[in-house]
Amino acid sequence: MTIVQLVPDLHSGGVEKGALEVARAIVDAGHRSLVISAGGRLVETLEQQGSQHILWNLGKKTPFTFFQAGKLRRWLSDNQVDIVHARSRLPAWVAYLAWKKMDAESRPRFITTMHGLNSVSRYSKVMTYGEKVIAVSKTVREYLLANYPDTPADKIVTILRGIDPEEFPFGYQPDADWQASWREDFPETQGKWLLTLPGRLTRLKGHNDFIDVIKQLQSSIPNVHGLIVGGEDPKRRQYAQSLYQRVKDEGLEYHISFTGYRSDMKQIYAISDAIVSLSTKPESFGRTAVEAVSLGKAVIAYDHGGVGETLGAIYPQGLAPLKDKMGIADKCRQLYNKQILPPQQAQTAYNKQVMLEQTVTLYESLT
Q1: Has residue 13 got a pLDDT over 80?
Q2: Among 290, 336, 333, 331, CA closest to 312
Q3: How far is the C-alpha of 299 from the C-alpha of 75, rounded, in Å?
Q4: Cβ contacts of residue 249 below 8 Å, gap of 6+?
Q5: In the predicted model, is pLDDT for residue 155 greater than 90?
Q6: The pLDDT of residue 260 is above 90
Q7: CA distance 58 to 65
Q8: What whole-number distance in Å separates Cα of residue 367 and Cα of residue 363?
Q9: If you average pLDDT over residues 46-68, what whole number do you get?
């Protein structure tokens, strides 16, 4: 089969990582894998894994993007594509407009994946237009059925996101070279009780709540240090600047560090004493939580959305009520004082290989 995935770009993030993982599984299963995107740092990895990248910006938020449907229709036909898999709303609209005008007897099969809990609107509804709609968690499935009740339940396929336990092995510690490099780059973290918030610098990740938690903990955990790991969003640089300024204004420069984008999350998780997830809007899946718990690290998080779902299954003692910053701080104190313990065994509930096998099986069932 020839299978094409459509994503806005290939810089970083869960959607992009998922596209790469599935692309590799497509190749490993003996099929032809193509990915259409506006490019990014992950393109090289994608191509090294045997997929073909098509540089085509179908995620640019302008009315003119919709006019790419005719060109995409011809491209799908010329490349004899069997499966079109859209993972984001605007590319999904272009794909849907192209696909629905093709001959119903010979056109590709059309699949969408609902990665996020998008605002409920006609624009977002395109993610329900797939012949099969993949929900990445039970949270997403319930969200779809509640907000788009005309979507047939039997066309929603729940395929839980997963991680590779060999990539995030229980008890892992980074090697001496990495640790030496880290000490050189971030000497202020040495000998500290390290609390890490991963995620791109966007408002929904809860960075201001994190700063508040660090302030609350300073009296009870004197050596606490906050680590904010994530790159700036080019569209939200003002928000990033406001965070830097707040940390400076409140005299927290030696208590909170910003690392920027990092590709070594496994190592950073491993040297952390706890990982926190403070997203103020529910997320579709808690990949960060699953990765950290797999390594044997405690995760402290707001109990809602996909993060609440995943932690509820693998580390429920880390959950605190939504927007309860005091509750988050209390959980951190309990962990520090050994009143609650980090995970005592590897998690097995969310496995990447199972996810990939289910996805490829779905593709193969449609042709």
Answers
A1: no
A2: 290
A3: 45
A4: none
A5: yes
A6: yes
A7: 6
A8: 7
A9: 95
Among candidate residues 285, 297, 363, the one with its CA nearest the CA of residue 81: 363
Structure tokens at 147: 């907000």
Q: What is the C-alpha to C-alpha distance for residues 134 and 158, in angstroms, rounded to an integer?
A: 6
Does some domain include residue 141?
yes
| CA nearest neighbour of 118 among 276, 284, 300 | 284
Q: How confident is the model at residue 235 (pLDDT cuts 50, 70, 90)?
A: confident
pLDDT in tens, 296-340: 999 999 999 999 999 999 999 999 999 999 999 999 999 999 999
Q: Do 135 and 195 belong together in one domain? A: no
Closest CA to 275 of 283, 287, 261, 263: 287
Q: How far apart are CA 214 and CA 90, in angstroms?
A: 38
- Name the phi and psi angles at 134, rounded to 5: -85, 125
Does residue 171 sit within a domain? Answer: no
Same domain, 156 and 204: no
Q: How far apart are alpha carbons 332 and 334 in whole angstroms?
A: 5
What one-character-per-residue DSSP string does 172-191 give? Answer: ----HHHHHHHHHH-GGGTT
Read off the CATH number of the domain in which 237 is found: 3.40.50.2000
**Residue 266 scores a pLDDT above 80:** yes
**Which residue type sits at 54?**
I
pLDDT > 90? residue 9: yes
CA angle 202, 138, 301 (to 5 degrees): 45
Its domain, for residue 243, covers: 176-336
Let me know if residue 149 belongs to a domain: yes
Cβ proximity of 54 and 36 under 8 Å = yes
Q: Give the CA distances from residue 197 to residues 51, 169, 210, 366, in Å, rounded to whole numbers and listed in that order.
A: 33, 20, 7, 40
